[in-house]
């Protein structure tokens, strides 16, 4: 089994959460006025529950969240997550033009950004490089006569550039890949509103706890999926306080939900 640093094992997630909590508690001893509410506000999150979920390992840390926490609590990211610190020193996931570097206070020092991504100006008219491919976006399309909407690829619309080696490393055929925009706050703090995910449409077999793009009665959604008896599905959001689990039986799934593909990449713009 290949280890995916973006999807840590329960043991790694627990260890990172414990290290983060220890740093928070140390800062609170230095400044008793520090609260999880204050930390959440400084990080731009909706409430204290987000901080609590990170500190208790209920949701895995991601690079953007870790940079925010590090900026406010004043620690180096490798003190909490060596796996994410290693990723931060690698080229950005996806195309060389994709901006993934956070821009939060001390966490976005110039020397860190220079390790993350080379700056290159480009637009839609810029020819593809020999090591690049373009992936189209999925979108919701309104059907005529008020018959709802459908999800389809923008074959003549916007595209996102990826490095061929990125897809090869993930064993993904570019012809079977596309991008999905994330809207709303249901997947925060991991995927804030406006994020983009890359989807492998050849991977529609559901693995419990993995992230998938789905067509739900014409609505394009990104959720964590879990199988249920009889072909049913449980849909989970990271922001479970506002968006509780959704459970659907097999008959409903067959008629109303199509698994578009498994998420293999995501980008967050702060």
Describe the structure.
It is a single chain. This protein folds into two domains: 107 residues, lambda repressor-like DNA-binding domains (434 Repressor (Amino-terminal Domain), Orthogonal Bundle); 136 residues, Umud Fragment, subunit A, CATH 2.10.109. By secondary structure, the chain is an alpha+beta fold. It has eight helices and eleven strands. The strands form three sheets. It has a seven-stranded antiparallel β-sheet. Strands 1-4 form a two-stranded antiparallel ribbon. A two-stranded antiparallel sheet has the order 2-3. The protein is 28% helix and 24% strand. About 12% of the residues have low confidence.
Tell the overall outline: globular
The major beta sheet can be summarized as: 7 strands, antiparallel
**What would CATH call the homologous superfamily of the largest domain?**
Umud Fragment, subunit A
Number of spatially distinct domains: 2
């Amino acid at each position: 089994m290949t280890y995916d640093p973006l999807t840590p094992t329960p043991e790694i997630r627990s260890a990172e959460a414990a290290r983060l909590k220890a740093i928070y508690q140390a800062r609170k001893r230095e400044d008793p006025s520090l609260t999880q509410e204050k930390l959440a506000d400084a990080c731009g999150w909706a409430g204290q529950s987000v901080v609590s979920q990170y500190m208790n390992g209920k949701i895995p840390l991601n690079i953007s969240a870790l940079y925010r926490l590090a900026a406010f609590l004043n620690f180096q990211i490798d003190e909490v997550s060596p796996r994410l610190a290693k990723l931060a020193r690698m080229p950005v996931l996806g195309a060389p033009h994709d901006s993934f570097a956070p821009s939060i206070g001390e966490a976005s020092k110039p020397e860190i950004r220079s390790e993350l991504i080379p700056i290159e100006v480009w637009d839609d008219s810029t020819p593809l490089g020999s090591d690049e491919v373009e992936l189209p976006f999925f979108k919701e399309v309104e059907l005529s006569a008020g018959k709802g909407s459908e999800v389809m690829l923008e074959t003549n619309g916007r595209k996102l550039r990826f490095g061929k080696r990125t897809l090869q490393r993930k064993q993904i055929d570019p012809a079977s890949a596309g991008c999905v925009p994330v809207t709303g706050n249901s997947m925060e703090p991991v995927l804030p509103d406006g994020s983009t995910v890359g989807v492998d449409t050849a991977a529609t077999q559901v693995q419990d706890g993995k992230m998938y793009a789905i067509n739900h009665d014409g609505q394009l959604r990104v959720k964590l999926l879990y199988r249920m008896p009889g072909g049913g599905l449980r849909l989970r959001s990271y922001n479970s306080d506002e968006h509780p689990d959704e459970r659907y039986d097999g008959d409903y799934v067959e008629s109303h939900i199509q698994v578009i593909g498994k998420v293999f990449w995501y980008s967050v713009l702060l």
